[in-house]
């Protein structure tokens, strides 16, 4: 999961997914104060968006893990990958310093996930456009 979560090195999130984190309503969360303040500016209305990775938002790299170590994970679910100790912290620290290890592990995890068959009882559709069902 730690490698797959690195997909958040690219892309954007809508305000409703990170509002509680950057405004401090998740009381158990630690967040970089400057990051919280600057990200609040993108979340004035619910239609706002922010990049998962403010350093290199359109490049697939290991900056996501640098952000986690700096307490700049945009989503609560991202930030929980780092700070609890153990294997996940070790992986985040390794991916932070070794972008090639991240890319290699991410590729392996994507192939593994892609080979998981869907449950037989659920009908499957390959969408022409990801955001909507096909109209057959």
UniProtKB/TrEMBL annotation:
<feature type="binding site" description="axial binding residue">
    <location>
        <position position="8"/>
    </location>
    <ligand>
        <name>heme b</name>
    </ligand>
</feature>
<dbReference type="InterPro" id="IPR002016">
    <property type="entry name" value="Haem_peroxidase"/>
</dbReference>
<feature type="disulfide bond">
    <location>
        <begin position="15"/>
        <end position="43"/>
    </location>
</feature>
<keyword id="KW-0873">Pyrrolidone carboxylic acid</keyword>
<feature type="binding site">
    <location>
        <position position="61"/>
    </location>
    <ligand>
        <name>Ca(2+)</name>
    </ligand>
</feature>
<protein>
    <recommendedName>
        <fullName>Plant heme peroxidase family profile domain-containing protein</fullName>
    </recommendedName>
</protein>
<keyword id="KW-0575">Peroxidase</keyword>
<feature type="binding site">
    <location>
        <position position="9"/>
    </location>
    <ligand>
        <name>Ca(2+)</name>
    </ligand>
</feature>
<feature type="binding site">
    <location>
        <position position="53"/>
    </location>
    <ligand>
        <name>Ca(2+)</name>
    </ligand>
</feature>
<dbReference type="InterPro" id="IPR000823">
    <property type="entry name" value="Peroxidase_pln"/>
</dbReference>
<keyword id="KW-0560">Oxidoreductase</keyword>
<dbReference type="GO" id="GO:0046872">
    <property type="term" value="F:metal ion binding"/>
</dbReference>
<dbReference type="Pfam" id="PF00141">
    <property type="entry name" value="peroxidase"/>
</dbReference>
<dbReference type="GO" id="GO:0042744">
    <property type="term" value="P:hydrogen peroxide catabolic process"/>
</dbReference>
<feature type="domain" description="Plant heme peroxidase family profile">
    <location>
        <begin position="1"/>
        <end position="134"/>
    </location>
</feature>
<comment type="similarity">
    <text>Belongs to the peroxidase family.</text>
</comment>
<keyword id="KW-0479">Metal-binding</keyword>
<dbReference type="GO" id="GO:0140825">
    <property type="term" value="F:lactoperoxidase activity"/>
</dbReference>
<keyword id="KW-0376">Hydrogen peroxide</keyword>
<keyword id="KW-0408">Iron</keyword>
<dbReference type="InterPro" id="IPR010255">
    <property type="entry name" value="Haem_peroxidase_sf"/>
</dbReference>
<feature type="binding site">
    <location>
        <position position="56"/>
    </location>
    <ligand>
        <name>Ca(2+)</name>
    </ligand>
</feature>
<dbReference type="GO" id="GO:0020037">
    <property type="term" value="F:heme binding"/>
</dbReference>
<keyword id="KW-1015">Disulfide bond</keyword>
<keyword id="KW-0106">Calcium</keyword>
<keyword id="KW-0349">Heme</keyword>
<dbReference type="GO" id="GO:0006979">
    <property type="term" value="P:response to oxidative stress"/>
</dbReference>
């Amino acid at each position: 999961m730690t490698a797959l979560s690195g997909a958040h090195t690219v892309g954007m999130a809508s305000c409703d997914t990170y509002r509680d984190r950057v405004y401090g309503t998740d009381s158990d969360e630690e967040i970089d104060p400057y990051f919280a303040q600057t990200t609040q500016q993108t979340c004035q209305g619910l239609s706002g968006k922010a990049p998962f990775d403010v350093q290199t938002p359109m490049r697939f790299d290991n900056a996501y893990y640098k952000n986690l170590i700096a307490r700049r994970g945009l989503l609560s679910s991202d930030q929980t990958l780092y700070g609890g100790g153990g294997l996940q912290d070790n992986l985040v620290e390794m991916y932070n310093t070794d972008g090639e290890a991240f890319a290699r592990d991410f590729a392996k995890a994507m192939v593994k996930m892609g080979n998981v068959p869907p449950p037989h009882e659920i009908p499957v559709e390959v969408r022409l456009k990801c955001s909507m069902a096909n109209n057959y």
